[in-house]
Specification:
By secondary structure, the protein is of the alpha+beta class. It has helices spanning 3-30, 111-114, 116-121, 153-171, 188-201, 209-221; strands spanning 55-56, 63-70, 79-87, 90-98, 130-133, 138-139, 142-143, 147-150, 177-180, 205-208. It is 38% helix and 22% strand. The strands form 4 sheets. The protein has a 4-stranded antiparallel sheet, with no helix packed on it. The chain has a two-stranded antiparallel sheet with strand order 5-8. Strands 6-7 form a two-stranded antiparallel ribbon. The chain is extended, with a radius of gyration of 24 Å.
Length: 222
């Protein structure tokens, strides 16, 4: 068999494998006994699938349980197995592993999935909108840093709308630029209304994860 025939055979096998994986995933998600529930938060739980009951690890004084979930940091949606300890101050994720029964990821996860608990528990993680407020105080020639205060979502959306309108009215529609990234794949509002809203601005400054990361790589490799 020549190199060209061998390459064609490999490509056919790869395509067949991809189709089989997608078909298996579709069957798993469409089974009535395994409904897939996309819930808000860090992960999406496979409701109805068996999880281990609460148990105590030999080195732990707190009962723990296993939860099957999915990472939502990119479009791959890799399956996860979380170990959660029930502590007096609330549940705590103590381990994140790949879910080997996931029909697509098959137990493989990247460092982002492993670090989900660190992201969730980061003390600097923003949970509400914040606004920068000048303190106005100075010490000699140095000026004290501005303060960040929490505000309501209504106030935050009003500030954003006023700022966009001001920029367009004073400098034209191309003064506005927008960027689209992975979170849009996990937002129902972005999928149903995002593109229509962005088209109304009629700006030529449009950026995405592809234009910032992927396409430059392709140009360099050309």
């Amino acid at each position: 068999m020549g190199n060209r025939q061998r390459l064609s055979a490999q490509r056919r096998r790869r395509r067949i494998g991809n189709v089989t994986a997608v078909a298996g995933a579709s069957r798993a998600l469409l089974r009535p006994e395994r409904p897939y529930d996309v819930s808000a938060g860090v992960a999406c739980e496979y409701r109805g699938m068996e999880t281990q009951g609460a148990s105590a690890h030999p080195d732990s004084v707190h009962p723990e349980r296993k939860v099957l979930a999915a990472c939502n940091l990119c479009e791959a949606i890799c399956g996860l197995e979380l170990t959660i300890e029930e502590r007096p101050d609330g549940p705590k994720v103590t381990s994140i592993r790949g879910n080997e029964s996931d029909p697509l990821s098959r137990g493989h996860i990247c460092p982002k999935g492993v670090a989900l608990a660190d992201v969730y528990e980061d003390p600097d993680r923003l949970k509400r909108p914040v606004k920068r407020v000048p303190t106005g105080s100075t010490t000699g020639a140095a000026r004290s840093p501005d303060a960040w205060v929490e505000i309501s979502w209504d106030e935050a959306l009003d500030l954003a709308a006023d700022g966009i309108a001001k920029a367009i009215n004073e400098h034209g529609r191309d003064a506005l630029g927008f960027y689209l990234g992975n979170p849009n794949a996990h937002s129902l509002g972005a999928q149903t209304h995002g593109v229509t809203m962005l088209k109304t601005f009629r700006t030529r400054n449009k950026f995405s994860a592809s234009s910032v990361d992927q396409i430059p790589h392709q140009f360099v490799a050309w």
